[in-house]
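Example record

One chain of 288 residues, shown exactly as stored in the release files.
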Amino acid sequence: MDRLLSVLARRPALGWAVTFTYVVLVFLSHDEIQRLSKWLRDTLTPALWTPLVIAALVATTVVTTLLVERRLCHSAVRSEARIAWWTSVGLAVVCAIVLFAANAEAIHFAQYAILTVLLVGLVGRLSWAALLATLIGAADEAFQYAVLHSRWRVRFDTNDVVLNAVGAALGVALVLVFASVRRRRAGEPRPSLPHVLAPLALTLALVGGGGLLAFGRGHLGLYREHAQPQTVVLLSRSKRPVTRWKTPRRQRSHYVLHPGVALLVSVGIVGALGLFDRRVSYSSPTTS
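Predicted structure tokens for this chain:
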């Protein structure tokens, strides 16, 4: 991982080009991934497909955890890396149980963990990389809602926004475990808490505060029945759910997050990750 991050840091033009290409591929691949998942499920039958997916996820988690624990034996930031890894894995498990409409949604974790690793190499800060990845993830969901599926009677998928944020947390954990990260020494300058949390406060003010203002003025609607003549943004083209626990046909029972809750959860995840910047310092080694 150090070699990859070092190349990205030394050649930012190439790094941004690779990252941009990766983001475009993520944005455009959703329907293809869904079609592949559906084809596999129908070919193997749900009775076989679901256990296979669960077994693959469990095996991946176990193998990765063994690699992580082996790496941590020689880590300079063992406690921070272990906290980041197990907290991120725990969040992923909770999301899988509560928020997954289909097992294939685990792809969000991998997609945004990889993106966060790329961004760490480019921006050099764990908190900024996680914030950028989470914002890109929200833009990804907006693209699906407004462009890819503009004719579908669906909602802006707040669940997937949170899944992408958890993927960013996994990416930060992977950097802490597998990259050259050291604990900040006593007396060494460290980012102040306001400096670390300022981007998140700005995001919360713009998205949350701006959303409340737009909703109050009738420019933003959460559900179809909120639509007014002056509505500019409608976050759901379907009706308000009777219950937030949904069991659609041929999908898993899952909880549908309110947009405000999804925003607070995402900001909370990224804010917690930002605290690692006060304790540890990432330094890309010189490539040969």
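Notes: The mean pLDDT is 89.
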